[in-house]
Amino acid sequence: MIQLENVTFTYNGSEEKGNLKNISLSIRQGEVILLCGESGCGKTTLTRLINGLIPWYYEGELNGIVKVDGKEIREQPLHILSRKIGSVFQNPRSQFFNVDTTSEIAFSCENQGLPEDEIRERIHQTVSLFQIENLIDRNIFHLSGGEKQKIACASVSAGEPEIFVLDEPSSNLDVAAIEDLKHIISCWKSAGKTVIIAEHRLYYLMELADRIIYMQNGEIRREWTTADFLGLSQREVENLGLRPASLKQIYELHIEKSSGSGFYQLKQMDFAYKGEQQSLHIPAVNFTKGTAIAVIGKNGAGKSTFLRCLCGLEKRCSGEVQDNGKSYSLRKWAKNCYLVMQDVNHQLFTESVFDEIVLGADNTDTNKVEQVMERLDLISFRERHPMSLSGGQKQRVAIAGAIFSDKKMLLLDEPTSGLDFRHMEQVAELMQQLKQQGKTLLIVTHDPEFILKTCDNIIRIEDGTIAEQYSLDTAEMGKLLDFFHLY
Amino acid sequence: MSAGLISGNENTVRFTLDPRTKLALVATVCTIMTSGRVGGIMTVIHPVLALVPFALLFLSGRVKDAASYLLAYAAAYSMISFVMPVTSGMISILIGATAGIIYRMMPSLITGYFVVSTTKVSEFNAAMERMHISGKITIPMSVMFRFFPTIKEESAAIKDAMHMRGINSLRNPMEMLEYRMVPLLMSVVKIGEELSISALTRGLSGDTKRTNICKIGFHLSDLLCFLLCIACWICFVLHVGGMI
Amino acid sequence: MNQQSSKLQAKDLITIGIFTAIYFVVFLACAMLGFIPVFLLAMTFYGPIITGIPFMLYLTKIKKFGMVTITAIICGILMFVFGMGYFTIFTALIFGLAADFILKAGNYTSKKNTTLAYAVYSIWFIGNYIPLYLTRESYFADLVSGYGQEYVDTLRAYTPGWMFLVLLAACFIGGLIGAALGKAVLKKHFVRAGIV
Fold this sequence. Notes:
The structure holds three protein chains of three kinds. Chain A has two domains: 244 residues, 3-Layer(aba) Sandwich (Rossmann fold), CATH 3.40.50.300; 231 residues, Rossmann fold. In chain A, a hairpin with an 8-residue loop joins β1 and β2. Chain A is of the alpha/beta class. A six-stranded mixed sheet of chain A has the order 6-7-8-3-9-10, with helices on both faces. Chain B is mainly alpha-helical. Chain B folds into two domains: 138 residues, no CATH class; 67 residues. The radius of gyration of chain B is 22 Å and the shape is flat. In chain C, 76% of the residues lie in helices and 0% in strands. Classes of the chains: A alpha/beta, B mainly alpha, C mainly alpha. Chains in contact: A-B, A-C, B-C. Chains A and C meet through loops of A and loops of C.
């Protein structure tokens, strides 16, 4: 089905990252292939070679032979290739062309010029196969990330390609949505389709993948059958820079906790969106100082609203916070909080890391800035443009700004979405460091590994209120594992 | 108000018009109402066309919107006819400016808004294809309509981020502009690239023939609208020709 | 796209849509101030300055004939649909095409040409003011019924015949400044961030 022989590819004008060296690989019809490896290892580039984005979209120097369906890829323009190969990408927000879901599912069929009745029939089939009847005729802008990703899969699937290429499809999904994604891939597998997935999260693919290919520095280094891969020890998997193959392994990742001392008490938080039913009502909750608190809950439970209210972004939210016997209105307290957004690009404004850190502050004490940069390992980027940095570095710049302005609480929204093992570990280390500096962290996350590595307490939100709160010790561990379906 | 080019279509709209009919209505209202012709038959045509957006809103079940439009229009009309003659100076100018905008521009604006908010991107594409309009115009336009809500979302997130950093003062407007615009452009460019990739790998291409699952076609209501448009145009042309 | 075709490809058409959207949104935000009578005229000047930022970025993304014309036509249609009269469609077409020719003459890379092209393109907005002059008497007569005599007299006083040329010049000069601002922002941010 797919053949690559001695393929070498270099992006135009790029650094080393993501280039391919000497790749030879052949994939048979009906195989499910999992491509793994650290960020920048070239797995995304390899998917682009297969779906034709290289050479038809990304420019660079391509040598070697890439054949899909027996034909050289350079001879098949993208709109022809798209009939054989369907692609799903990482970011659910950016990959839809229409505003309503039904038109979106029809999109690839319409582009093929299929007759209307046939398209309707295919939409019907796809919708019932994926069990997404509830998503029909909806506004895509009102869907959750997981639902958007299902629509993206359905749109590709309705085009009935023989090959599916997925590039980190689970990056922005929660545990439940990943289960749905797994179901979709298994549908393709049982229909005899060829599926190629580049992914950081491995566990959900263990029952589906036939072969697992490990890449490093643009080369294929190892290859396992799934059974062999599952036989690797946890240490071996970590040394390869991979996330665990089974969620049960996560269990042992647990590390020492900080107990903290004293707490901030939040009382009577009340908020409702205008004209919507969803609301937030929290009678009282304590945040232990100097600890990391994971905020978990299902999609739409109100986790993000909770963070937004705490840092003053929802002005109509009422409530108060007590600290050291003093009481602050929520509005006043918001000055002590800083939200690190999921898309950190939204909160970088200036032209250098230095300017970014002092932005909005009254004093620009250079010594203090340097201390902060030192602690967050940003010294060497002092004059770089923040947007030219990597994702993790950008995140550190945003955090540096918060630390410089002496915020007491840092709120983080999905800080590890789309990160590979090593980068996730780096964020976890950073969180430990922040705790030691006495910062209190509230982290909304779907990443059980990350929780076990960093968090001391758990708050579970359901229907806009706190359903339970517990500290993460062995006695209570069951609750967390239960939430993530880890048994 | 959630539907159409601006925001998808979740409400089942009972009253539907073919997109081409809507275009004809827009063309009629927007041309004749802004043509600057007054007197003669136009004293009849103006109020008739001003009722078009009301009828559209009302028939499609947005009774509240229809009522507020009618109220605003009637208020503006009475301000101009009854209040303005008895005032003078700055007050008259202020009333003239606000009421005038409502009186002159609202009908066109609301008709335009109605069309944009009740037409799905795919309906729009289907209509354009039937009218043999080139993909060179329709592809950018459909991308644009899909992008308005994205720009809104991104812009809101950036505004929040600025608020948190305490940089929302108006001390330095140039700086504010930069902080608002630069991150917005950066993220829009990125989303745009990802959208391109996703559309291209699903077979969008400028020159091949597309089909469309949208069932569009003319019904009785379309016929009535067209008759109204034609009647207005005949009157308008005769008026321009100096006959009525 | 690997093929260095000078024709507009699907990818380019999508990019045109995106930048037209953002150009128009920024433009509309400027125009909101235009409901205040003085700004209505000042808009010809400050509008092009502010929209210079997205537009200069736009010009780095595609370098093919027709891009500005398409953007112009769409803006013209939108202005028409939102009740600003039909003249704008024509001015948009004319100045959009002119801008494309200027860009083409500079191979879509010459810095002088991009500045000039943007300034020329910015004149499209003048279409909104044409009724004020072309059908001046009937326009004012119509305005009286809507805005009242006093407002119209003020507007008339502010818009003598030569004012049209001033507005035209304001668009053009605003465009020149906008291009310079846009390029400065490109250099300060987008080049350093590695996006251009």
